[in-house]
Design goal:
homodimer, 198 residues, Arc Repressor Mutant, subunit A, 70% helix, DNA-binding
Amino acid sequence: MRPKNLEKEEAIRTIALQIIAEEGLENLSMQKLAKAANISPRTIYIKYENKEDLLIKLFVDEVLGAYEKAILEKFDPDMDFAEGVKRLWTNAFRYFKNNRHAFALMQYGKSSPLLHKAYQERDIKEGDYFAPIHRFLERNAKAGVIKKLPQEAYRAILFSPAFDLINEYFEFQDRPKQVITDKVFSDCCEAVIKGLLK
Amino acid sequence: MRPKNLEKEEAIRTIALQIIAEEGLENLSMQKLAKAANISPRTIYIKYENKEDLLIKLFVDEVLGAYEKAILEKFDPDMDFAEGVKRLWTNAFRYFKNNRHAFALMQYGKSSPLLHKAYQERDIKEGDYFAPIHRFLERNAKAGVIKKLPQEAYRAILFSPAFDLINEYFEFQDRPKQVITDKVFSDCCEAVIKGLLK
DNA sequence: TTCATAAGTAAACAAACATTTACTTACTTT
DNA sequence: AAAGTAAGTAAATGTTTGTTTACTTATGAA
């Protein structure tokens, strides 16, 4: 039996992300993707059931999975609170700086119902990537280091500003110069930390 | 001359927002919209140049414009810092609670390149709705009440958590009960305020 | 009351869409 | 070396897309 060409599978994923980042999810078509990847449309259907399947796998494996792995690098639930949060922020910033196209699809996770649903279902099923962070926050809350809030609230306060800053970081095309420097990013991180401390 | 039927124009906008919220921007078609609004496809083209024009006007006028007006209600740049931020948060929460479909399109403003571009251009051209908030922050920074950060950083820290919480607020379909109560929302607001104070 | 005119409609347009059919190619196993 | 098989292709499928054409309707001005 002829083996699958893994390069082609990777090309599909890479170029799909590129089209989504540059033209938007609503402008990705199977034929455009096939042409850009220099393959036949049929080849996509060997690797993915249909368009929905491709998008969900792209989002869950290539974007969410890689991101979650990246932000937990060198992170330990037993870290000091400020240190732990700084590590998560640094990891996220570094990862997306190097994966701009992944960031674009990530943003669709909050808007597109299809991806949003996949995001929620993954969180429930997959044992929750958030678990180490959950433990980290729980421990610090119990120890009286930080305010007691629902997990959803911690997530909103701790991570959404980082995403917004990364979004701004990518926006410096039309600006005279980069506003979101490492310094600004870490200043913001400290402000967020301070806000949660008791 | 026969006058435009404003009810039809409103139906187009309302139902377009509804489809986007329920099925996603990528599943909104002109014919689906026309059928749902009980009009001919041609009628949409009397009121809007094309699909892009419709989407941008929907986003800018119906969503961004209404939101900006709503959050500045009873806000004054000379307010005390904590009081001002609380007012902005309360206004945003109230507005989106009452306009769930607008919130859905708002979320696409960060992902869809078309809307994202419209968002940026509006900010530059339109005299900037953010101006009163800009002055508010500038004054408090100069007075030494809060840390000095770029405007983009203030935006990220101050507003993105509110959006995330509102998003969570709408998610309680599959949950036993509402997690994001008024209490949690205002606790988060206070944490964000504390983080920025010097 | 008539008439000019833009609003509105139903039906159609080519182009683009997701997906499939019929076929060829390349590699593993025997 | 031959055969079996899944990977891969080119071209076509029927459907849906955004938009337009040709026509009808309703209304304010004369």
